[in-house]
Amino acid sequence: MTTLWDRSRQVAVQEILDTALRLFAEQGYEHTTIAQIAREAGISQRSLFRYFGTKEDLVCGGQEALGELLKQTVRQQPAELSPWDALRAGFETILTADHTPERVLELSRLIFATPALHARYIEKRLRWQSELVPIVQARLAAPAAPAGPSPDPRAKAVVAAVFACVDTATELWAGSGGRLDLADLYDQCLAAVRDGG
Predict the structure, then answer these.
(1) How far apart are CA 158 and CA 175, in angstroms?
(2) Burial class (CB in 10 A: 0-12, 13-18, 19+), 69
(3) Rounded to an integer, what distance in angstroms lies between the CA atom of residue 103 and that of residue 21?
């Protein structure tokens, strides 16, 4: 059950994010300060930092919760589903878990256009990948020749390939202003990886 405090916090977070994104669009990410965002949102910098730990978190925040949702979704898929399909189901779930499709598009465009945000995004995605490898490995049949304590390289390859396809599709989708279909872009990328084009 969502409490009144939770709802109030969600409204405050949304208002701060709306303000930040407006300023980023007007002035650019690098030229917008936390002080400006706080002032425009009508709160103190200290209050802003209670909601968002860093300036990057205004755009890339909430990734830990999304990563956990991704892992849970992949883990809960039926056993007969391939790792490829289980990962796709996970990404479909998290795509709009926190935001509307329009907000996801706005955030994606900002992330891919801003080197500091893109670096933060990649850092978090690499962490997600390493946490997904054991889950995907459990879905794969045992390799013909066990390689000892190291993880099955197939699991790492599948996870890395899916992330590359998701990121490529998302970048193309954001670059098109949302005119292209994200799921179709992902399918094209995955077909290129799995079937050689």
Answers:
(1) 26
(2) middle
(3) 10
pLDDT per residue as tens digits for the range 151-162: 679 999 999 999
Flag whether pLDDT at 147 surpasses 60.
no
Q: CATH topology for 59-195?
A: Tetracycline Repressor; domain 2 (1.10.357)
Q: How far apart are CA 197 and CA 194, in angstroms?
A: 8
Domain borders along the chain are 4-55, 59-195
The residue with tokens 């850092």 is 123
Q: Taking every pair of C-alpha atoms in the chain, what is the biggest distance, in angstroms?
A: 62
CA Rg value for the chain: 19
pTM over 0.90: no
CA 42 to chain centroid, in Å, comes to 29
Alpha helices in 28-52 (DSSP H): 34-41, 45-51
For the chain, helix (H) and strand (E) counts, in that order, are 10, 0
Q: Alpha carbon of 111 to those of 16, 29, 106, 107, 119: distances in Å? A: 18, 10, 9, 6, 9
Which residue, chain included where needed, has tokens 């990886």?
193
In sequence order, what are the residues at sequence separation of 6 or more whose Cβ sits closer than 8 angstroms to the Cβ of residue 15?
41
CATH topology of domain 4-55: Arc Repressor Mutant, subunit A (1.10.10)
Residue 145, number of CB atoms within 10 A of its CB: 6
How far apart (Å, rounded) are the C-alpha atoms in residues 160 and 177? 26
